[in-house]
Amino acid sequence: MELPVVSLPDVQAHKPEIPVNLTRVGVTNVKKLIEVTRKYKRPIVLISTFDIFVDLPFNRKGANLSRNFEAVDSVIEEAVRGPVYEVEELCGAISRKLLDRHEYANRAEVRMRSEYVIKRKTPEAGATCEEVVDMIAEATAIRGKETDTIVRKVIGAEVLGITACPCAQEIMRDRAIQVLEELGVSDDVVREFLQRVPMATHNQRGRGAITIEVHDGVNVPLDKIIRIVEESMSATVYEFLKRGDEAALVNQAHRNPKFVEDCVRTMAQRVVEEFRELPGDALITIKQINEESIHRHNAFAERIATMKELREELSS
Amino acid sequence: MELPVVSLPDVQAHKPEIPVNLTRVGVTNVKKLIEVTRKYKRPIVLISTFDIFVDLPFNRKGANLSRNFEAVDSVIEEAVRGPVYEVEELCGAISRKLLDRHEYANRAEVRMRSEYVIKRKTPEAGATCEEVVDMIAEATAIRGKETDTIVRKVIGAEVLGITACPCAQEIMRDRAIQVLEELGVSDDVVREFLQRVPMATHNQRGRGAITIEVHDGVNVPLDKIIRIVEESMSATVYEFLKRGDEAALVNQAHRNPKFVEDCVRTMAQRVVEEFRELPGDALITIKQINEESIHRHNAFAERIATMKELREELSS
Amino acid sequence: MELPVVSLPDVQAHKPEIPVNLTRVGVTNVKKLIEVTRKYKRPIVLISTFDIFVDLPFNRKGANLSRNFEAVDSVIEEAVRGPVYEVEELCGAISRKLLDRHEYANRAEVRMRSEYVIKRKTPEAGATCEEVVDMIAEATAIRGKETDTIVRKVIGAEVLGITACPCAQEIMRDRAIQVLEELGVSDDVVREFLQRVPMATHNQRGRGAITIEVHDGVNVPLDKIIRIVEESMSATVYEFLKRGDEAALVNQAHRNPKFVEDCVRTMAQRVVEEFRELPGDALITIKQINEESIHRHNAFAERIATMKELREELSS
Amino acid sequence: MELPVVSLPDVQAHKPEIPVNLTRVGVTNVKKLIEVTRKYKRPIVLISTFDIFVDLPFNRKGANLSRNFEAVDSVIEEAVRGPVYEVEELCGAISRKLLDRHEYANRAEVRMRSEYVIKRKTPEAGATCEEVVDMIAEATAIRGKETDTIVRKVIGAEVLGITACPCAQEIMRDRAIQVLEELGVSDDVVREFLQRVPMATHNQRGRGAITIEVHDGVNVPLDKIIRIVEESMSATVYEFLKRGDEAALVNQAHRNPKFVEDCVRTMAQRVVEEFRELPGDALITIKQINEESIHRHNAFAERIATMKELREELSS
Questions:
Q1: pTM of this prediction?
Q2: Quick count: other Cβ atoms within 10 Å of Cβ D111?
Q3: C257: β partners
Q4: I need a surface site. Which of A255, B122, C265, D200 has the fewest CB within 10 A?
Q5: What residues of A are in contact with residue D167 (Cβ under 8 Å)?
Q6: Distance between CA atoms of B6 and B2, rounded to whole angstroms?
Q7: What is the Rg, in whole angstroms, of the alpha carbon atoms belonging to chain A?
Q8: Are the C-beta atoms of D158 and D208 separated by less than 8 Å?
Q9: How far apart are CA C275 and CA C282, in angstroms?
Q10: How far apart are CA B284 and CA D14, in angstroms?
């Protein structure tokens, strides 16, 4: 049976009884299929999860959440028709549209997460395998009072790798030296042996992450971020390893042992080296979580700083 | 076979090759059994999950993570022997110990989450049932240069409830009016009927959360926070409802429809009313997530402000 | 530095010290990008998560897990080159390849999960919106002793919807009747009113799921399964609803209240009606989980039966 | 305002329109505080998560879910007053009560999961530390037609540990041999060295699990199951390790490398050795998941068998 047609009230535009500002009103866990066109590469199709917010002044009862979807949809449609887009630009465009449609808001935020497939070649056999990394993009549009709207964008990735512990390895190495000495092996041979064969230690899955926040207009290649994260751990993981690859990988990880702290510092150094064009106020977050194989808990390290701060520390 | 005894190297105290400060180094997802003694009440036994961090200067390779555990353990042991403790005081004491043991650190952070069981009486039958809420406590100790160490503590809770949508209800109400009028029912009867029987709308699980950050020494009762959160939604959920209770609950929720925005504003007002003794710089975060029954995504609202800001908005 | 080349031992082919058969050896949580060609439709690109197993006899130490990846990869490559494929056929082909490569195994199992995007039109405004459902496909290949390898395949989906409770609604309806009678409204008008305006009840997100297991060769359209699941709840959810849509959806859900039990039974009836060609031994699992808005816990109902059993119950 | 009192309808007892049997109707994710009294030990307080089901015949519309809670509550109350209880007996008692209260049901199922804290002593320093393991208990009560109700119970645990890969280690060992030979070290010294110092390999968090299903009346100590699981991996993990402990643990894990398959087989052997009193029809499930440090995916092995089957394989 049909409902009678009535004119629909706009409850959200009412004055609220409690005049309190809201920092953030919106929707979370919105899934959208997006197709990102890229220069010189095939477009990528992603199922992305969006969180979308605006602020709300004390004199307005509710935000029209359905407008958020129209903003997302209209931008994504244009993106599909238009030429070149990076995911953080997509978020930036959505954040601008949100301010257009929520005329009472001064700030609009868009966060996007997605799985992203990259290709890697295994270390020994050189076989190609696919890896899934987690991509993060964000944008915040701030309505200027006398100036234009300002948009800040974040692009980043979280990548799995292997980390081997330097501390336990140093102990195992000292013990190897002691045993070889007891067995009468000469110092020279011991030294040579230990240079060629790395000793045991505990190793585990590590998860490194970098995000870079820049003003609208600056472009930060995602693939470069992913490469920095994966190269800052003891070794890269692969979905598919032939036996020779597996040995090469274990060897490489054990030649390159790293604490969580080392991973974060290596990422910081690489970001400074490889993103020389980034402005000093670009906010960088760098994080490493090791799922310790000898514990139930995780080891964690993090640095949050501007490019200027990182540059100064590294040039001192 | 026994390993030969060797003197153990302290790899972490070395100078790192990359002189970058770290914002946060530590461990996450550490589970500990804690027993919290309380005034006038039975002690509570909780399996709590801790995240524990210190900062690390550029000239030190690693933090001694095992020291974190000694700090946690020694404080928990004292807590069990000692007289009265709130969970946020426990975190505060751990954060102080962390600074004692990590002499190179200027800042120590402790975050604790735990499930916490409370009792509720059902609305009609008055039956007692247990509910599980999520408790959050945090502490940050900052080493003063010329002053004493400052500790700031956070205490809070996340609680499930039911929220009914005011917007859809207003439309359903308008349609009820229209149909009753078409059937020749008088305005007075329509008005009286709608006052006594609330119309349908979509309703769903909501999750409200409040955290309050205060200086060491100020006490914020957790049970008061939990009560504010649960009373700020359309109605309280219960694990166990007789049929009469269920009807009473549906009736109550539909008489008290609320947007995510309304829930946050009600919580803000209640926090201001019930915590008059809190200092103006106490940081308050208030959050509401509605798991919308008509969508796959969630509705979200949040306010982050000091007590001073909330008081000013509400007294204007 | 290069490692010296040595011949690599095949540890897995050794006899194990403990001669125990293993039901299942393999890998879980393997993510692969797959592209499924379909008749009359655009190919779909999916990031799918695979679990892959073979059984292992007592006289073999280990399974060569890397062979699993070769099986997956080679089938996916062929699938991309080849013409028409359903996801469950992809799993079936992988399970056959697994038996080819693990000559010691008698049974190979492949399970695949993936997010899958469908389009829906909103009930009133007729706007198109995207919805994400969870797709499940499985295949089991069993090596025949004197016969050919037998492959059984499972295809299914889990879909979100809204469910409204009939029990609370009946109480609210009785109360509406009582109040209207007290106000002197005639029985005829009351009856007519309640036919045109459904009364309130608690409603919530429901998750319905159907899987259908068939012999290799039988084709079960995924889109049909998805439609049955979404039509067996009180109403369909949409990511994007204009205000008029929202009212229409609330109205529809409240006209069609359903317990978890009802959802499962409706799905069972629809499966019997719409898959008349399925063999009697096709195993059907039907499941409904309601995330009760009035409780912290979920309501659950499930039926596991063959098509033959369901047909007999429904024709009795 | 008060609702008028009306007599409440029993919607669930109606005949359903679709006469389909349901395998399982009930509630999931119910959290309850339970206190289990034990012989010679302190009572344990646990926040346990229950799933509770009964079957439902084709001629009954719904199960009275609130009766499930009364069954759980009444049994837990008795358990607290009564003398000795194991968690699986608690589940058994709940399943019997469920059949008492759901007179139309022939089968009642109870599943319980809980975190459970055990103490361990570290390998070198002998320090005590707490570990959290996951405890599982289940019970199924089946109404006999001419006999008494039969109850089958399951008790089990999932425990974290460390596993080191034998395959990569054998390759690293072969390379160590080759290098030492190239450096002119004698075969005897090489052999002696490799006996005293284990070579590197990848290692990771493993999760082992055992569940044992027995008839009511047979008692299976949970602590024995936990010990078997933790001793079947390469080494035990600890929340707290002094540096000497860490070296001892790395050494132990590398002296005891294990595939997922080996862990399952070791558990099978230990279960057969240590539970000689178990009846032949006791169903055993044994599972091992290794969170491979060199891959993003997990390695998995499983055995599901009766005690009789395991005994026969191991005595052959």
A1: 0.93
A2: 18
A3: none
A4: A255
A5: 243, 246
A6: 12
A7: 25
A8: yes
A9: 10
A10: 51
Token pair listed for A268: 């910081």
- For residue A237, what are its two tokens? 């993981």
3-class DSSP assignment, residue A152: strand
* CA B194 to mean position of chain CA atoms: 37
In which element (H, E) is residue D169 found?
helix D166-182
pLDDT in tens, chain D (316 residues): 444 444 555 666 778 899 999 999 999 999 988 877 766 676 778 889 999 999 999 988 887 776 777 777 777 777 656 554 688 888 998 899 899 888 899 999 999 999 999 988 988 888 888 899 999 999 999 998 888 899 999 999 999 999 999 999 999 999 999 999 999 999 999 999 999 999 999 999 999 999 999 887 788 999 999 999 999 999 999 988 888 899 999 999 999 999 999 999 999 999 999 999 999 999 999 999 999 999 999 999 999 999 999 999 999 7
Residues of B in contact with D247 (CB under 8 A): 3, 8
Question: CB burial class (10 A; 0-12, 13-18, 19+) of residue D184?
Answer: exposed
Which among D131, D185, D297 has CB closest to A185? D185
CA-based end-to-end distance of chain B: 77
| B269 backbone dihedrals φ, ψ, rounded to 5° | -65, -45
Contact check, Cβ <8 Å, A268/B179: no
Cβ(D140)–Cβ(D125) below 8 Å: no
Residue among C238, C251, C296 whose CB faces B239 most closely: C296
Chain C partners (3+ C-beta pairs within 8 A) = A, B, D
SS (H, E, C) B170-212: HHHHHHHHHHHHHCCCCHHHHHHHHHHCCECCCEEEEEEEEEE
Query: CB distance A69–C45 less than 8 Å?
Result: no
Q: Which CATH class is domain D18-165+202-315?
A: alpha beta
State which fold the B16-165+202-315 domain adopts. Urate Oxidase (3.10.270)
The residue of chain C nearest to residue D257, with distances taken between CA atoms, is: C11
Distance CA B237, CA B257 (A): 15
CB C56 within 8 Å of CB C64: no
H or E element at residue D158:
strand D150-164
Residue C236 CA to residue C254 CA, distance in Å, equals 12
A208 alpha carbon, distance to own chain's centre: 8
CB atoms < 10 A from the CB of C34, how many? 21
Q: Which two tokens stand for residue D63?
A: 């199960």
**d(Cα B263, Cα B231) in Å, to the nearest integer?**
9
Indicate the residue of C63, C289, C301 with minimum beta-carbon distance to D22.
C301
Q: Do D167 and C297 touch (CB under 8 A)?
A: no
Q: Which helix (H) or strand (E) holds A252?
A: helix A243-255
Tell me if A43 sits within 8 A of A35, measured CB to CB. Answer: yes
Q: What is the DSSP letter of C237?
A: -
For D117, other C-beta atoms within 10 Å of its C-beta total 15
| Cβ-Cβ contacts under 8 Å, A251 against chain C | 3
Residues 6+ apart with CB under 8 A from D163: D203, D204, D205, D206, D233, D234, D253, D257, D258, D259, D260, D263, D288, D290
State the distance between the two ends of chain A, measured CA to CA, in whole angstroms. 76
Residue whose entry in the numeric block shows the structure tokens 């390159």: A256
Q: Best residue in B5, B18, B306 to probe A by mutation, most A CBs within 10 Å?
A: B18
CB atoms within 10 A of CB C42: 7
Pairing mode, strands D203-215 and D150-164: antiparallel
Query: For chain A, how many helices (H) and strands (E)?
Result: 8, 9
Task: Retrieve residue D218's tokens.
Answer: 């047979």
> Among candidates C278, C299, C117, which has minimal Cα distance to C211?
C278
Query: For chain C, what are the domain ranges?
Result: 16-165+202-315
ipTM reported for the complex, 2 dp: 0.90
